[in-house]
Amino acid sequence: MTIFSRILAGEIPCHRVYEDEHVLAFLDIGPVSDGHLLVIPKEAKAKLHELSDESAAAIGRVLPRLARAVMSATGATDYNILQNNGAAAHQAVMHVHFHIIPKIGSAGLGVGWNSGTLESGRAKDMVAKMKAAL
């Protein structure tokens, strides 16, 4: 059982911003910036690819609305939406969750990006494999 499961069960309080039958959004208690929001499905799955289509669609429907609410409440005009899958990808709570993190001055998410190159042959191979998986 994760801390998010315990929040969903009502065992741990949270600062609820939004809730419907599939999704809960609440303020992060360790915010990266003011207004840092967590958005979780009520379906308890560790990684995004494990979610049902219904839960994934429900999150997709509310993310833009929640981002607008964060921007309105904080005055931020820029923000990051972060979602990690697995410990090696920096996931700390093994329940799918999205962070909406407003960028306010120097407060907010800092991101490093190690860009590589995409070779044509490798791209064709990846496209073929991904299409086969769909």
CATH class: Alpha Beta
Q: H/E order of the elements?
A: HEEEHEEH
| Portion in helices | 25-40%
What number of domains?
1
**Shape assignment:** globular
Uncertain stretches: none
- What does the average pLDDT come to? 93
The CA-CA distance between the termini, in Å, is 31 Å
Proportion of residues in β-strands? 15-25%
Radius of gyration: 17 Å
Kindly report the name of the CATH homologous superfamily.
HIT-like
| Secondary-structure class | alpha+beta
Number of helices: 3
CATH fold call: HIT family, subunit A
- What kind of sheet is the major sheet? 5 strands, antiparallel
Secondary-structure arrangement, i.e. CATH architecture: 2-Layer Sandwich
Number of strands: 5
How does this structure look, described?
The chain has 134 residues and is an alpha+beta fold. The chain has a single domain, classed as HIT family, subunit A (2-Layer Sandwich), CATH 3.30.428. The protein contains 3 helices and 5 strands, in the order H-E-E-E-H-E-E-H. A 5-stranded antiparallel β-sheet has the order 1-2-3-5-4, with helices on one face. The radius of gyration is 17 Å and the shape is globular. The mean pLDDT is 93.
What features would you highlight for this structure?
134 residues; alpha+beta; HIT family, subunit A; 5-stranded antiparallel sheet
